[in-house]
Amino acid sequence: MKKIGRVLAVAVLALAATACDDDVAPCSAPFSDCNGSCINTSSNSSHCGGCDKACDPGLICAKGACTISCPAKQSKCGGGDAGALFCANLQADNKNCGACGTACEAGKVCSSGKCAVSCQKGLSDCSGKCVSLQTDAANCGKCGNACGAGQVCKAGKCALTCQKGLTNCSGTCVNLSNDILNCGACKGACAVGQVCTSGTCALTCQASLTNCSGTCVNLRNNPGHLRNNPGHLRNNPHT
After folding, report:
1. Backbone dihedral region of 112: left (phi > 0), alpha (psi from -120 to 50 degrees) or beta?
2. Beta partners for 125?
3. CA of 45: how far to CAs of 26, 39, 75, 174, 232, in Å?
4. How many whole angstroms separate alpha carbon 60 and alpha carbon 47?
5. Which residues are CB-contacts of 47 (< 8 A; sequence separation ≥ 6)?
6. Quick one: CA torsion of 217, 221, 227, 228, rounded to 10 degrees?
7. Most exposed of 61, 66, 96, 187 (fewest Cβ within 10 Å)?
8. How many CA atoms are closer than 13 Å to the CA of 36, on its beta-carbon side?
9. What does the CA dihedral 21, 22, 28, 34 come to, rounded to 10 degrees?
């Protein structure tokens, strides 16, 4: 009888233990039972992706995988065949320009996610070439603005370039010493019947006529003029 009583006691204890186990509520997703505790294995760095799968120092657990946490405006690069994970600014990183692993060539810098020529102060990048927009005839004032034939770029503007002895007057090269429209200065036009001599407007007379104080006269047919100006006869012995 004593033996039967012991068997019944063990059976009762076993049933009681089973009942207690049935009362324990299981862990609900995304939690998992890790050593008797419900753990979110999608974000817990000590149980990342599974129980006891700890992340290395400096890494965090995101979506069940160990990864790095990058500051604002930086992107996660590396991992797998690309090596260790690291953060990079894809807008300004010369070794990761626009995308992880995209390196800029020597002499170029990463600007706004694109590799561009690095120009010295005072120069501008025009199609990958450093130029001065103040003096470059092919890029005068702005990239691609080419000056016309015979023009040069001065202070960012296209201007006519004239040979020695000529002057730029409103886009035309003229000789101020003999140009009747620009005599002595641009737009210094001579009057009708005058010529430009040594930069000065002067009367020009036809053959057989003489310039007398700005008037062309025929000394042979104008005896009155000779009486009033006897010096002209001495100066014109053939009259």
Report:
1. left
2. 130
3. 22, 10, 21, 84, 118
4. 11
5. 32, 34, 39, 41, 53, 54
6. -20
7. 187
8. 1
9. 10
Number of neighbouring beta carbons within 10 Å of residue 211:
12
Alpha carbons 71 and 141: distance in angstroms, whole number? 40
List Cα–Cα distances, 62 to 1, 12, 49, 69, 73, in angstroms.
62, 47, 9, 9, 19
Beta bridge pairs of residue 126:
129
Host H or E run for residue 228:
helix 223-228
| Tens digits of residue pLDDT in 170-225 | 778 889 999 989 999 999 998 887 888 899 998 877 777 777 766 677 777 766 55
Q: What does the block give as tokens for 61?
A: 């657990």
130-181 pLDDT, tens per residue? 889 998 999 999 999 999 888 889 889 998 888 888 888 877 888 999 998 9
Q: What is the mean pLDDT of residues 44-70?
A: 87
Integer angstrom CA distances of residue 18 from 13, 23, 38, 91:
9, 9, 21, 62
Dist CA 204 CA 44 (whole Å): 106
Contact 11, 28 (CB under 8 A): no
